[in-house]
Amino acid sequence: MSFLQSPGVSFIPTTEQKTQCYVLCCWFTKLYLPVNIVRLDERTGNVFFLAGEENIIEIYPNGKWRYIR
Predict the structure, then answer these.
(1) Residue 2: pLDDT over 50
(2) How large is the greatest C-alpha to C-alpha distance in the chain, in angstroms?
(3) How many helices (H) and strands (E) does the chain have?
(4) HEC profile of 14-30
(5) Distance between CA 1 and CA 6 in Å, rounded?
C-alpha cells in the first residue's frame, strides 16, 4: 500500500475544495493580501488557508468554508 493509499485518509483535496480555494485566492489577492499557506490537514481532510497575517479559513471536503479568524 502506497503513501497516498492509506486507509481512511485522503491526501488529495476534493474538487469542491480546489474550486473554493481558487475563489478565495482570487478574493484575497484582489484585496492585496498575500496567500501565505494552503495546507491539507490529513487528520480532518480540511484545507487550511492563511491569507495576510490573520485571515484563517478552513475549507471542508464539501467545499463549504468557515472563517476562523
Answers:
(1) no
(2) 44
(3) 1, 4
(4) CHHHHHHHHHHHHHHHH
(5) 7
What is the pLDDT confidence band of residue 60, given thresholds at 50, 70 and 90? very high
| 51 vs 42: CA distance, rounded Å | 20
CB atoms within 10 A of CB 13: 18
63: left (phi over 0), alpha (psi -120 to 50) or beta: left
C-alpha cell at 13: 483535496
- For residue 47, the tally of other CB atoms under 10 A from its CB is 23
- Per DSSP, helices labelled H in the chain are 15-30
Distance CA(30)–CA(66), nearest Å, equals: 20
Q: What is the mean pLDDT of residues 54-68?
A: 94
